[in-house]
């Protein structure tokens, strides 16, 4: 985009004053940067306005769909309720994210070094991934009780599978020549893992972590549906069954905001760590 | 499952032996049930709800916050259920010592499926399940349902079938559709009636003033709601714990009845997601279902074998028991009610 505008300027103001053209191009670029966020903001604002007009125009009752104004009012007037329910979910999501991904990474390393383990346990991992969470949730509650533990395990289960698959793939995505070179240098498996495999797996890992960063929030919320007093999930149930639609929408928006925040954090961490392949992984 | 038991050093020897014998007895019957002793003479009771924490446990919340359980030597913990979690498994497995079920049929069906649980008290004397219709197309008696579409929750379809059978209406004369938690089918005219609990005041606000109520109870299907239950083993070996629990609950409900607004304050202080405004509206109906002429004579939480027998008969006639049809003694036990009679009658 920037190059195009520079070209445009050059043909349009080709008066021989090269300095001005560069300056113009620079200001163009900074303007482009300044308005970079304009399209999504305008689109979001437009949709909110449309939503409001539809609700008001057609007289939709608030228990079916509240207007954005009512939802914003919930954030202001019932902010405290939202906050006390926000923290448990944040904690469960983060703990589930850490637990699920750690287990997945450790298993992936094991699978890559032990073909027998991979053949034995990979199908089981696939099987576990296909079990509907709602079906195992009550069992988890029976085993782990009703505190944070079952919610964290559910969030971890949801994070686990994409990371496992990607990490196995990433650890194996090493060029044969590179492996051959390491063998010639008589590198041990451990050295190959630390110096070659982990490096090559990082873009894959972060692709998986980005998926996990949003699904862990969903996991925590689903976990809270199976019996908890606080948490965004329990607030969703409370609001649904008591027809508090504006509160329901506000809770959903807060949950989505949490997921987006996790996603952005993961992306920022990736940018700091995976410097050698900045664009290829997006 | 926790078997964690802390025995205070100062516990007298006799008591210790008794305690050991109790533990041995529990082990001998290969029981899963453990009542954790938190301190000398204090027992920990985990109460598993069949639904979210709501005004249905207002008395328990009041008793907990006002120290009534503490005075009875009970340390109460409340574990909420939710959609898909009715808590029966939790109680049967011994994770919770006391269960609280929304409606009595679940308990009969669980018993028929071989789960060893029994009701020992009934929180609501009259089930608040109601068919809501609008003044423009009212359903005041079961006969008004003929030729109309009724929307009800999947788990409540059986109640509608029971109601039709009781009133001599053929099932094909009424169209039954499923509904979720919303009442939109009534508001949009897709159904002539929707169902819900009369105590859910927030949901009823949606329906406005032109609402017509027909209670399941008044239509001839008389179920108990907010049933307290425990395993056979718990009832046999830890009846004293259950009795102390029920005494605490009775005092809590008595206090809530004497001072409803303070009761609501306790409830919303404990469960901050609840809205004080709607709970203040709900507290009247909640107390209305908890106290009536039955409780006036027999005390709070009373229940009668005849009523249970009628429920079993209704469900048996409709072929609902996949296992063997339970007897009254299978599904209920009045020992705890008898043991707590004086405390309960004070507040009936």
Notes on the structure:
The complex is a heterodimer of chains A (282) and B (348). Chain A has helices at residues 2-12, 18-34, 38-57, 68-77, 79-113, 115-130, 133-144, 148-172, 176-184, 189-225, 232-241, 245-273. By secondary structure, chain A is an all-alpha fold. Helix content of chain B is 42%, strand content 18%. Chain B is built from 17 helices and eleven strands. Chain B has helices at residues 13-28, 58-65, 68-71, 88-92, 104-112, 157-166, 184-187, 201-205, 232-237, 239-258, 260-270, 276-290, 293-298, 305-317, 328-331, 335-339, 341-346, and strands at residues 37-39, 42-49, 74-79, 98-103, 117-124, 129-134, 149-152, 175-178, 193-197, 211-215, 225-231. In chain B, α6 links the parallel β7 and β8 (175-178). The longest helix of chain B is centred in the last third of the chain and has 20 residues, at 239-258. The A-B interface holds A 61, 63-64, 80-81, 84-85, 134, 137-138, 141-142, 145-146, 225-230, 234-235, 237-238, 240-244 and B 49, 52-53, 79-85, 87, 89-90, 93, 95, 181-184, 187, 200, 202-203, 205-206, 271-275, 278.
């Amino acid at each position: 985009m920037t190059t195009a505008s520079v070209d445009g300027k050059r043909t349009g103001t080709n008066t021989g004053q090269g300095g001005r053209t560069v300056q113009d191009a620079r200001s163009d670029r900074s303007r482009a940067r300044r308005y970079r966020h304009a399209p999504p903001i305008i689109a979001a604002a437009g949709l909110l306005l449309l939503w409001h007009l539809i609700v008001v125009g057609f007289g939709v009752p608030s228990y079916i769909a509240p207007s954005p104004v009512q939802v914003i009012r919930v954030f202001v007037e019932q902010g405290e309720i939202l906050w006390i329910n926000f923290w448990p979910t944040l904690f469960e999501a983060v703990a589930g994210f850490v637990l699920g991904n750690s287990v997945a990474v450790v298993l992936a390393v094991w699978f890559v070094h032990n073909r027998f383990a991979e053949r034995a346990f990979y199908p089981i991992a696939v099987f576990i991934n296909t079990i509907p969470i709602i079906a195992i949730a009550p069992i988890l509650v029976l085993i782990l009780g009703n505190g944070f533990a079952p919610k964290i395990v559910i969030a971890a289960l949801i994070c686990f599978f994409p990371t496992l698959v990607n990490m196995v793939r990433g650890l194996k995505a090493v060029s044969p020549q590179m492996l051959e070179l390491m063998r010639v240098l008589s590198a041990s498996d451990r050295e190959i893992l630390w110096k070659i495999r982990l490096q090559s797996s990082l873009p894959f890992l972060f692709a998986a972590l980005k998926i996990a960063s949003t699904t862990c929030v969903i996991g925590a919320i689903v976990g809270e549906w199976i019996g908890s007093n606080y948490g965004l999930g329990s607030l969703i149930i409370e609001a649904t069954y008591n027809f508090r639609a504006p509160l329901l929408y506000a809770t959903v928006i807060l949950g989505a905001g949490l997921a987006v925040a996790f996603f952005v954090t993961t992306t920022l961490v990736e940018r700091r760590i995976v410097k050698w392949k900045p664009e290829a992984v997006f | 499952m926790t078997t964690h038991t802390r025995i205070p050093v100062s516990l007298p020897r006799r008591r210790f032996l008794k305690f050991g014998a109790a533990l041995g007895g529990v082990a001998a019957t290969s029981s899963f049930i453990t009542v954790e002793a938190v301190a000398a003479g204090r027992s920990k009771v985990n109460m598993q709800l069949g639904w979210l924490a709501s005004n249905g446990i207002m008395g328990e919340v009041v008793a907990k916050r006002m120290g009534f359980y503490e005075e009875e030597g009970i340390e109460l913990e409340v574990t909420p259920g939710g959609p898909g979690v009715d808590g029966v498994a939790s109680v049967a497995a011994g994770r919770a010592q006391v269960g609280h079920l929304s409606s009595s049929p679940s308990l009969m069906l669980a018993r028929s499926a071989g789960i060893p649980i029994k009701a020992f008290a009934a929180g609501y004397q009259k089930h608040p399940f109601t068919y809501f219709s609008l003044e423009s197309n009212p359903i005041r008696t079961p006969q008004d349902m003929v030729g109309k579409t009724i929307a009800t929750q999947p788990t409540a379809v059986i109640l509608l079938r029971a109601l039709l059978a009781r009133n001599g209406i053929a099932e094909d004369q009424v169209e039954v559709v499923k509904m979720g938690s919303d009442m939109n089918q009534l508001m949009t005219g897709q159904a002539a009636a929707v169902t819900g609990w009369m105590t859910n005041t927030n949901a009823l606000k949606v329906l406005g003033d032109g609402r017509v109520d027909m209670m399941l109870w008044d239509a001839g299907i008389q179920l108990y709601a907010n049933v307290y239950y425990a395993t056979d083993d718990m009832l046999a070996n830890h009846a004293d714990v259950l009795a102390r629990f029920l005494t605490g609950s009775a005092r809590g409900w008595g206090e809530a009845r004497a001072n409803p607004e303070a009761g609501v304050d306790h409830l919303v202080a404990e469960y901050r997601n609840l809205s004080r405004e709607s709970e203040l509206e709900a507290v009247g109906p909640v107390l209305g279902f908890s106290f009536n002429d039955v409780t006036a004579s027999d005390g709070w939480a009373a229940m009668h074998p005849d009523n249970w027998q009628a429920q079993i008969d209704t469900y048996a006639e409709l072929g609902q028991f996949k296992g063997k049809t339970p007897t009254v003694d299978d599904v209920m036990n009045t020992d705890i009610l008898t043991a707590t009679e004086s405390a309960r009658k004070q507040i009936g």
